[in-house]
Amino acid sequence: MSRKHRKPQNRTAHPSSNSTTSTRAQQQRLASKLAAEAQAAAVTAKERQQQTIIGAIVTLVVVALVAVIGVTAWGEHSKAQQIKAQTTSGAYRQLQAVAQKPANTTDQAGLLACKKAKLNAKVPTVEIYLDFMCPTCGELNRKLDATLEKMNKARQINIEVHPVTFLDGNSTDHYSLRTASAAAYIASKDPDHLMDFVSSLFEKDFQPSETAYKPVSDDQIICQAVKAGVDKTTATKATQGTYTEYMSKANNYTVLHRPELCDTAMYPQGGTFATPLIRINKSVWSLKDRSYDELASDFENGIGLKAQDVGNAKVLPTLGPDNAPKSA
């Protein structure tokens, strides 16, 4: 019995409905993921671009602000310097504009301890800044001024006395200003006795206390001047306040407007004026770490004199480089 062979039927496989739905969902999720990633990348790129722009703007703003601040600061500094210069020049003009000025003085209110005609151009100029109420000034005077006076009389040095009055408020009768005016009068009329008068005011049993002041009369000052060799008439007129305005203006100019008058070794921050102060040929002769008992010998060494030559008119001082004292 013969068998009939059936011709195989060609069949195409068709996915089921569930399979088709699953595939489409996967494709949609992939597309959504890709779209989200693309969007995120675009947002990130945009943010980076914005940050770059903002950073550049901030940098420009900061640079501009720094420039403005720098210009402003420089402008303020320059303005401050101009104001200071104007104030200083104004203080100097006020000093020079005073009607009653001492005859024997420098243009910066230094009282000369000899007549101008006797100044020796070959010797150092010694400036002494003091307040007649200053206790340390008194101590320095009692240790050093005898040596200075010997040199002055032998014309081995030129001396300028610069009385200031910033301690005047410590007295009840303007003692610093009154004695400064008296010194200015004596410098004008009898300069050869100026240093003696200065020393008389600094006598230990006469100089009034800075902290426990007791009034000093004009008669007491006259007595000290007469003791110093000043004639009675000149001594009396010296206490009449002829130069109080001048010495007041001199104090303002000296104390507030001369930064070069600072012992930078003593006050390294600068700008501090204090008495006593000594300058030799415009160089500050620092008092830092000096023993007052050795001031005379230190000073002699500073200007190049031996102790035995002090007061010898034939021997002149020899200074260091730039005509400055040998010891700072």
CATH topology of the largest domain: Glutaredoxin
The number of helices is 8
**Overall tally of domains:** 2
CATH class of the largest domain: Alpha Beta
- Strand content range: 5-15%
The rounded distance between the terminal residues' Cα atoms is: 145 Å
| Overall mean pLDDT | 84
**How many strands appear in the DSSP assignment?**
5
Low-confidence stretches: 1-17, 62-85
Helix content: 40-55%
Strand order of the largest sheet: 1-3-2-4-5
Radius of gyration: 44 Å
Q: What structural category do the secondary elements indicate?
A: alpha+beta
CATH superfamily grouping of the largest domain: Glutaredoxin
What is the element string, with H for helices and E for strands? HEEHEHHHHHEEH
Named at the architecture level, the CATH assignment of the largest domain is 3-Layer(aba) Sandwich
The biggest beta sheet, please?
A: 5 strands, mixed
Briefly say what this structure is:
The protein is an alpha+beta fold. 49% of the residues lie in helices and 6% in strands.
Structure in words:
- By secondary structure, the chain is α+β, with helices and mostly antiparallel strands.
- The protein folds into 2 domains: 20-97; 111-323, Glutaredoxin (3-Layer(aba) Sandwich), CATH 3.40.30.10.
- 49% of the residues lie in helices and 6% in strands.
- It has helices at residues 17-97, 135-153, 175-189, 194-201, 218-227, 232-238, 244-257, 295-302, and strands at 111-112, 125-130, 158-163, 277-280, 283-284.
- It has a 5-stranded mixed sheet, covered by helices on one side.
- Strand 4 and strand 5 form a beta hairpin.
- Helix 4 (194-201) crosses helix 5 and helix 5 (218-227) crosses helix 6.
